[in-house]
Structure prediction request, 182 residues.
Amino acid sequence: MCADLGCQLIARQKAVVVAAGAAPGTFVIAGDTVVVGPHGPLGKPITPEAALRMLAQLRGIRHTVLTGACVVVAGADTEVLGVSRSLVRMRSFSDEQLVAYVASGEPLDKAGAYAIQGAGADLVEAVNGRIDAVIGLDVALVFRLLAEAGYRSPLPVVTDVALQPARRERRALAPIRAAQRA
Prediction:
């Protein structure tokens, strides 16, 4: 099975489990992220040694981050899936930086052994794609999936706040100034 489909199906499985216990009509959102290195999907490291191996593989190269998303409507036959793809280039970080990052504990249980929203950002040189997808959930994709599933737009149609500052009413001139202007 390809990684694109795999991350979508894992997201679907998560959503279906939650939807089974939710009230009918509830929209359930789930996601899953897969980091694909030079030799295939990396998974999540359970031990510091596994994290060191994964990050050493990614050092100085570009890899792919896939984020699958699924929207399920509880009590209905509505399921919508999608995937987002981003390319991430890692810096050529030193062994000392690698060991210090892994010692922090942050890489454990993270796809690809790094968290770009945390200290792992120091290991990243560039992202080509959506940063929120690399973090774990592509918000634009989720909005699209929600719309496809029948959810009314979560974005306001009319703004709640005026886009231009309100014009101050001019107060009438004092009688003395009015006479001077005439």
Observations:
- The helical segments are 3-20, 48-58, 95-103, 131-135, 139-148, 175-181.
